[in-house]
Design goal:
With about 150 residues, the chain is mainly beta. It has 2 helices and 5 strands, in the order βββαββα. It has a 5-stranded antiparallel beta sheet with strand order 3-2-1-4-5. The radius of gyration is 24 Å and the shape is globular. About 5% of the residues have low confidence.
């Protein structure tokens, strides 16, 4: 293959900092190289409803099972809608996370001249409200039920 090198900078696929829905498209159980603890590597796809980046934006995050990272795993579980019970032993299975959509606050970092997103915080689910429509009462029903 023959081509002419470009003078254009490498493309950077990221979204502006903010709160987004993210979907877990890959989750792999592995071991942290630095701590030797169990770890789940997450690959997230950012929902860019307006098609901001022109293609899917991927973000990577790591859940490391160390006491100093328990707060992050707790926040992740809250974002999944789990109740957090102090001192409860919990097993997270990577394969059960696939396809789950949750909320995350993303920030923009620069690494080797490239802009990319990182998870700044996992956000609790937005409560859904269910509106109950009141039944319609006719004037006739009202007059029959009134004592006077």
């Amino acid at each position: 293959m023959k081509y002419t090198p470009s003078d254009q900078p490498a493309k950077s696929f990221h979204v502006p900092a903010g709160d987004y829905d993210v979907t877990i498209v890959d989750a792999a159980e592995t071991v942290s190289r630095t701590s030797g603890a169990g770890m789940i590597k997450l690959t997230l796809e950012v929902d860019t409803a307006d098609g901001y980046a022109g293609s899917s934006v991927k973000v990577f995050d790591y859940l490391v099972a160390t006491p100093s990272s328990a707060w992050k795993i707790d926040a992740f579980r809250r974002a999944l809608g789990h109740e957090i019970v102090k001192d409860e032993s919990v097993e997270l299975a990577a394969e059960e996370l696939l396809g789950r959509t949750l909320r995350a606050r993303l920030k923009v970092d620069e690494f080797n001249g490239q802009l990319n997103n990182k998870v700044d915080a996992w956000l609790a689910p937005v409560p859904t409200t269910t509106s109950v429509r009141a039944g319609t009462v006719t004037q006739k029903e009202l007059s029959e039920n009134e004592p006077f």
